[in-house]
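Homework help board

Subject: predicted structure for assignment chain

Our instructor gave us this sequence and asked us to write out the predicted structure in token form, then describe one feature. I got the tokens but I'm not sure how to describe them. Can anyone check?
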Amino acid sequence: MARQTDTGSKITWHRYEELRPEQLREIVQSRPIAFWPLGLLEHHGWHMPIGFDGIKADRFCVQLAQRVGGVILPVMWWGGSGGHGPFMWTHYQPEEASRAIVAQTVRQLIRFGFKVIVLPFGHYPWDTVLAPVWGEIEQEAKAHGVLLLTGDEGTIGRPAVKFRGDHAAKEETSFGLALLPEFVDQSLLVDGRDPKDHWPDGDDSPAKSIYPGVCADARKACFSQLGVDARQATAEHGWARLDPVLDELIRRIQAHLTGPA
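My token output:
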């Protein structure tokens, strides 16, 4: 199982921002793997934190790094798109700005010598945000012999492993219960809140830009959710989804670093 950390070998991983230059150079020479969780600050229902996307992606990276080593960069919090812009506490930024930051940073990681770069999309619309520049970046990575792994938890392991996520509903809540259980509280999923307390301008008539199918009724327990009711989520369901993805990525990373037999 990918969650197992006692593999019989001394695998170490580090936080990028905590390392000195010489330490980073040593890692690039020994385990040249960089993980960069792409998140967002966005309303994720009554039961999960505003930073769910970023925390989820970071914990996903930790699961991988515990098995293959490398470094984890600080979460990229500033993204956009997704249809939750009108919700209280959500911070969407201009897509061109977010795109430029990600593209520049990935190109720098390639130049610095990392041979595996993993970008889990905790916020699913990152693929559309990055689409205008990603083909060119993939070509640059290939030219430098870099394995570039990107996608949300349901697509990053494709084609071997693929499934659909949701928003703050059964799937994402199950991932939360698996990866960050201390931040998830399903007991808060109850009806009866005053909607005027939960829109930025006290307006209980949300903007038309909300994504179709998202519950926009703040009186409901499923407010902000898109998908099957989050009260059906379990950690077991989360790990059943995540473990095959983690195992597939570990296989690809190790194969890329060791090369053909």
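Reply (TA_rk): Your tokens look well-formed. For the description, you could write something like this. The mean pLDDT is 93. That's the kind of observation they're looking for.
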